[in-house]
Design goal:
Blueprint (H helix, E strand, L loop, with lengths): L19 E6 H16 L6 E2 L1 E2 L1 H5 L3 H11 L4 E3 L2 H13 L10 E3 L8 H6 L2 E5 L2 H14 L3 E6 L11 H9 L7 E7 L11 H17 L3 E3 L16 E2 L22 E12 L4 E3 L5 E3 L4 E5 L16 E4 L2 E6 L7 E4 L13 E5 L5 H8 L3 H6 L6 E6 L2 E3 L17
Parallel strand pairs: 1-19, 2-10, 3-4, 4-5, 5-6, 6-7, 7-8, 8-9
Antiparallel strand pairs: 1-11, 11-14, 11-18, 12-13, 14-17, 15-16, 15-18, 16-17, 19-20
Helix pairs in contact: 1-3, 3-4
Length: 410
Amino acid sequence: MSTPATTPAFPAAPAAPPPAWIEIDLAALAGNHARLTRLMRVHNPAAEVAGVVKANGYGLGADLVGPALARAGAPALFVAHLAEGAALRQALAADPYQLQLARPVYVLNGIAEGEADDFLAFDLRPVLNGPDDLDRWTRAGRTRGRPLPAALHIDTGMSRLGFDEAGFAALAADPSRLGGVDIRITMSHLACADDPAHPLNRRQLDRFLAVAAAIGRGRLSLANSSGLFLGPDFHFDLGRPGVALYGINPIPGRANPMAPVVHLKARVLQVRTIDSFESVGYGAAARARPGMRVATLAIGYADGWPWSAAGKGEVMIGGHRAPILGRVSMDLVTVDVSALPPSLIHGGAVAELIGSHRDIDALAEDAGTIGYEILTRLGRRYARRLVTSGQTQVYPIGVPTPQTEVDPAP
């Protein structure tokens, strides 16, 4: 008679400190939201700034930044997919400081066939990007005996999502086609806002003004992060910034007006002194001289540190700069610490890879990409720590961030 197999009992997950982590400054996040709100309200005291938290809050954790932006006064939040919206709604419901400040959550990619029940179950609102979306949401409202809230997206030059020219013309000719939905926001999206001189900006503005005159309902929204800096003509009622909230520069080529929100840190795993002319890392891409000290950090491209940034830039250890050496490995990065005081360099020492010495935009330039990609690719292996005034806070979120004026949600 065989003996039944037993499942080995393992202890709980180890409580060891993480080898790499992201520090998220929620006070800076709220300050960036307030900065953009003030910018809009110079010419429109009723203007508001929503928060875009798609791609898991641009890699920072939508469950962290979503509630923080709602507390800061964002009247609505935007995600890309239904699943993102459901997860965000759960995070908002769980946030102990939300109370009655639950915010509308809009799904930018619209509504697919068969998704209406899930949208309603999680109290989500689709962005209607074409006739199919409009028909689906109209039918959902009809079965429930009332028009359901949504946003209406008209394409004015992006040629991506939104009602195209023919679709807009049909709505303008017969606005009653919108009678089965409750449009809270009429929106479009700028294609070239980060290039203020691009002529498409003005063409899109003129087209959006025509949209507003013909079928505009609810709040009008055109400006993304960079669009908010094109001037008050682009502001309308509701801004929809994403990366500017998280500290990425929305005005390339000029000083960044936004406060840094993200600090990326990793521990030193090992330090060694090279005694001869040896290579460092894959491909022997870096050469070491005798006497060089090399520190290996617990971070790599599996964590979102770009492989294409090999051998570029530097990290900060104990207030000293250490150049990055050679290729980026899946889990490791090597740096030259020869010039640093030996007392600072040891296993367990902390290196800052993104921070005041080198922001996300600088890393993106080294990697040949954009800050958006760097931010959203920060990996799932990182712990995420909330920092306010230099003090690390433990999740769940602690003291609420300072609020801007809270107006009724759209």
